[in-house]
Amino acid sequence: MLFRHRGADSSYFVLFVIDGVHYTLPLLEVIVSGPYVQIANNMGLLIQRRKYGSLTAANLSVTTNQDARTDHEIEFHIVQPSKPGRILVNHFISHSFSQDDLKQGCLIYRHNGGGNFDVFNQTVKVKATYLEG
Questions:
Q1: Gyration radius of the chain's alpha carbons
Q2: How far apart, in Å, are the Cα atoms of 8 and each of 13, 32, 35, 36, 66?
Q3: 87 by DSSP, 3-state: which?
Q4: Is the dihedral of CA 26, 30, 31, 34 positive or negative?
Q5: What pTM does this model have?
Q6: Beta-bridge partners for 29
Q7: Could you read off the pLDDT tens digit of each residue along the chain, which spans 133 residues?
């Protein structure tokens, strides 16, 4: 369902839902805001030195009010790479990936042995909306 906003910053509408036998009429509230992308989850990853671990949507995910029809449209771009490790997408070093890659388990963080703590900074892009993270 796609709701197109025209008018006030908030509104209500009734949605008729039926399963063939039962029905309900929930009252849905719609609150309008500017376009946004927010980090929904940033749990990090704990691994042993010189080992690797999978990065999934359980570790990192975003929410948005943009009309992103697929998780491929939610793009992560690494702007400050990891120092003692590498991000691999489908077994190749990469500086970008999608929310779909996270959900499908295509990302691996591989630690190269240096340091005890690592971090990488990324930009999340959904359509024309960006979030530095």
A1: 19
A2: 13, 8, 16, 19, 19
A3: strand
A4: positive
A5: 0.77
A6: 12
A7: 777 777 778 888 888 889 999 999 888 888 888 889 998 888 888 888 889 999 999 989 999 988 888 999 999 999 888 888 889 999 999 999 999 999 999 999 998 888 788 888 889 999 888 888 6
**Tokens 């309008």 sit on residue:** 32
Question: Residue 87 to residues 5, 9, 35, 43: CA-CA distances in angstroms?
Answer: 39, 41, 29, 16
Distances (CA, A) of 88 to 30, 31, 85, 92: 39, 39, 10, 5
Place of tokens 């702007």: 79
Torsion of Cα atoms, 109 then 61 then 74 then 31, to 10°: -170
Q: How far apart are CA 53 and CA 127, in angstroms?
A: 30
Helix and strand counts by DSSP (H, E) for the chain: 1, 14
Q: Which of 66, 58, 48 is nearest to 2 (CA)?
A: 66
Residue 90 has phi, psi (to 5 degrees) of 55, 45
